[in-house]
Amino acid sequence: MKILVIEDDSEAASFVKKAFAEAGHTTDVAPDGETGFTLAQTGSYDVLVVDRMLPRRDGLSVISELRAGGDTTPALVLSALGEVDDRVTGLRAGGDDYLTKPYAFSELLARVEVLRRRVGAKEIETVYKVGDLELDRLSHSVRRGGQDITLQPREFRLLEYLMRHAGQVVTRTMLLENVWDYHFDPQTNVIDVHISRLRGKIERGFETPVLHTVRGAGYMLKAG
Amino acid sequence: MPAIMRTTAARLSALYLILFAICAVFLVVYMTSLSVRMLTAQTRDAIHEEVASLDLAYQRGGLPRLVRVMEMRARQPGANLYLIADATGSILGGNVESLEPGVLDTTGWTTRPFAYQRYGETRSQQDGGRSPGPHDAVAQVLRLPNGMILLVGRDLGEPEKFRKVVRRSLMAALGMMGFGAFLIWFFVGRHALKRIDSVSEASNEIMGGDLTRRLPVTGAGDEFDRLSENLNSMLDRIAALNEGLRQVSDNIAHDLKTPLTRLRNRADAALSGDADDAACREALEQTIAESDQLIRTFNAILMISRLEAGYSAESTQTIELDATLADVVELYEPLAEEQGVVLVGTTKEALRIEGNRELIGQALSNIVDNAIKYSARADEEPAGEAPRVTVSLERSKQEARLVVTDNGPGIPASDRERATERFVRLEASRTQPGSGLGLSLAKAVMKFHGGRLELSGGDRGLSVAMVFPLGKTA
Predict the structure, then answer these.
(1) CB contact under 8 A, B359 and A84
(2) Does B306 touch chain A (CB under 8 A)?
(3) Under an 8 A CB cutoff, do B327 and A83 touch?
(4) How many angstroms separate the Cα of B380 from the Cα of each of B340, B374, B408?
(5) What is the pLDDT of residue B357?
(6) Which of A146, B96, B117, B471 could form an SS bridge with B83, CB 3.0 to 4.6 Å?
(7) Helix B357-375 to helix B438-448 angle, to the nearest 10 degrees?
(8) Which of residues 281-300 of B touch A (CB under 8 A)?
(9) Do residue B361 and residue A194 have CB atoms under 8 angstroms apart?
């Protein structure tokens, strides 16, 4: 995946570049908004990571101008401003996701990978399959190995989100945001308990685990 | 500007002086002209009568009788002016020795005052010879049928004298006004403005560092007292904020220094020669976890400050409190179960308020999180019962109450107020993980929504109520 990072803090930028490289992604870094805009216009990137406060040109205006020009490259806004309002303005300007500084790189990586996938899968499937686990969005049913599994509505949404992003790391904040629609930092281990409950329902009595814990990052649903 | 004019009192006094002086001059001029006009009219009336009676004398007894009557009247003290002349204007009789030429050519009223000289008044004895000869007079000139000219007039008094009187009274008035201005300056300046000086003196001392100093209040209840009282309560508020800030920085120093020191020591230990790879890895992971906790603490501090500074109203919408309650209970239910706590949510009435869903959700989460944390140990104690946390929503008059009740150890009544202050972690909770900001954040959120956070409870257990005012539409 080719990522453009528009970030004026050179140390942060080089750290992110290195970390993305380790995860197998190519990264270009633009030190200011103007350069970033010019590079982004080439349209050769899969995901843009844009800092909100940039020299020469504000990050949000870079995104909104790209959108005005018909460019739909998914963009993640990085910002030191993390209040609800800021998030709303960030997303309104055309950003697809919003991450508050300071952040864990694993969080950034997980979100960037999900962003790329979001664009790839334009139409949302009605049935998700991971190994022998099946989820039907229309009939609200879950089956594993031909056996029906009963889930609470929230557990269903949790599993649905995990299955939509199967094979990708999903962080706890991403789960709280997408399944519960709250953007604060989950306290203690509320999400973990929900996961272990779900895990109990979809793994108990089966040989292979499907819901994996990725240490220091989050969770990943994958067969085998 | 001279130094004295720099005081308000002096400036006010000068302004009043000038204003009053202008008024006085105008008044004197106006009164003078008015009285002159009145006097003139009176004079004319008198002359007119005189002429009429002389005319009568002439008709009855001819010229001799006229002359006789006239001479008799002319000799009385303070008499009018009488003059009889022939057609050419040479004076034949009366008490006028000479007069301005041309006066006798007029018929009827003289158009303006004229100068004249009486007999025996060449150098007037009346005022010690200071004023020279002629006086001003008005007169009526009458032509008798035989061509003789009769003039009856009246002296207008000595204009010089009149002017002097006016000038003297004007000077007296101005003098009194000057004195009045001085009095104003004295009272306003020395008395009233002195209190302003005392206020600025006290302010200087406060700025100089004596923050406990307050402005003087005399108890008179006047404007100055009100000003001082307001400034004093402002100073109290500033002092309270200052104290709060000091406490926060102390607490930050304490609560952040400890984990930072731990962080540093751990890195230090990992660097020291005898640590193997696994130990280093372990140390790094702990470092990250600790840093995350620090970041969380900083975020909470920032958020509280932002909320206290006032949030934009744009971020509010109509939210259903019952839905928020259900969300949070649902979110925490598995955690509660894992901790052996029964978490129950009850809604007596579905209520809506204008607010920020995120903030209320976060505040309620913090409170529920705390409640679960503290009640979880309830059954370990001798008199303990099964740990239980209830979240309820009810309406009380014009308020919506979102109450979280636990049966944990509770908070002593004396500590409840302190519990919502930033970083305050009561003794009982020192051993529990947490930033000490949960309740402070909830309190800031409530304040932002125009509501309040109430802590109550008996010997055991704690009730934390988020009280929202209900709008008219709710």
Answers:
(1) yes
(2) yes
(3) no
(4) 12, 11, 10
(5) 86
(6) B96
(7) 150
(8) 285, 288, 292, 295-296, 299
(9) no
Between B193-207 and B223-271, two packed helices, what is the crossing angle to 10 degrees? Answer: 10
- Interior/surface letters B413-429, b for 16+ CB within 10 angstroms, e for the rest: eeebeebbebbbbeeeb
Question: pLDDT digits over B346-398, tens only?
Answer: 888 888 888 888 889 989 998 998 888 888 776 666 555 778 899 999 988 88
Instruction: Please list the residue range(s) of chain B that carry CATH number 3.30.450.20.
Output: 6-121+132-165
Check residue A5 and give its pLDDT: 92
> Which positions 174-193 of A are in contact with B (Cβ < 8 Å)?
180, 182-185, 187-190, 193
Average pLDDT, chain B: 78
Nearest CA to CA, how far is A59 from chain B (Å)? 22
| Cβ-based burial of B397 (10 A; exposed 0-12, middle 13-18, buried ≥19) | exposed
Pick from A15-19, B309-313, B434-438, B458-462 the range whose average pLDDT is largest. A15-19
| B22 contact partners, CB below 8 Å, separation of at least 6 | none
Mutation choice for B interface testing from A184, A185, A195, A197 by most B CBs within 10 A: A184
Contact (CB<8Å) A197/B295: no
Domain B6-121+132-165 has CATH 3.30.450.20: yes
Nearest-CB residue to A194 (from B288, B302, B334): B334
Q: What is the Rg, in whole angstroms, of the alpha carbon atoms belonging to chain B?
A: 51
Rounded Cα distance, A53 and B467, in Å:
38
B432 touches A: beta carbon within 8 Å = no
Token couple for A146: 């031909």
Residues of B in contact with A184 (CB under 8 A): 358, 361-362, 365
Is a pLDDT exceeding 50 seen at residue B432?
A: no
- Phi, psi torsion values for A72, nearest 5 degrees: -110, 15
Interchain contact A123–B (C-beta under 8 A) = no
Chain B residues touching A216 at Cβ < 8 A: 285, 288
Q: How confident is the model at residue A82 (pLDDT cuts 50, 70, 90)?
A: low
Phi, psi of B155 (to 5 degrees): -70, 140
pLDDT in tens, A13-45: 889 999 999 988 989 999 888 888 988 888 788
Q: For chain A, what is the HEC assignment?
A: CEEEEECCCHHHHHHHHHHHHHCCCEEEEECCHHHHHHHHHCCCCCEEEEECCCCCCCHHHHHHHHHHCCCCCCEEEEECCCCHHHHHHHHHCCCCEEEECCCCHHHHHHHHHHHHHHHHCCCCCCEEEECCEEEECCCCEEEECCEEECCCHHHHHHHHHHHHCCCCCEEHHHHHHHHHCCCCCCCCCHHHHHHHHHHHHHHCCCCCCCEEEECCCEEEECCC
**Cβ-proximal residues to B250 (8 Å cutoff; 6+ apart), any chain:** none
Query: Which CATH fold would you assign to the domain B313-469?
Result: Heat Shock Protein 90 (3.30.565)
Query: Around Cβ A176, how many Cβ atoms within 10 Å?
Result: 20
Query: Which tens digit of pLDDT belongs to each residue from B282-297?
Result: 888 888 888 877 877 7
Residue from the list A85, A154, A187 with its beta carbon closest to the beta carbon of B312: A85
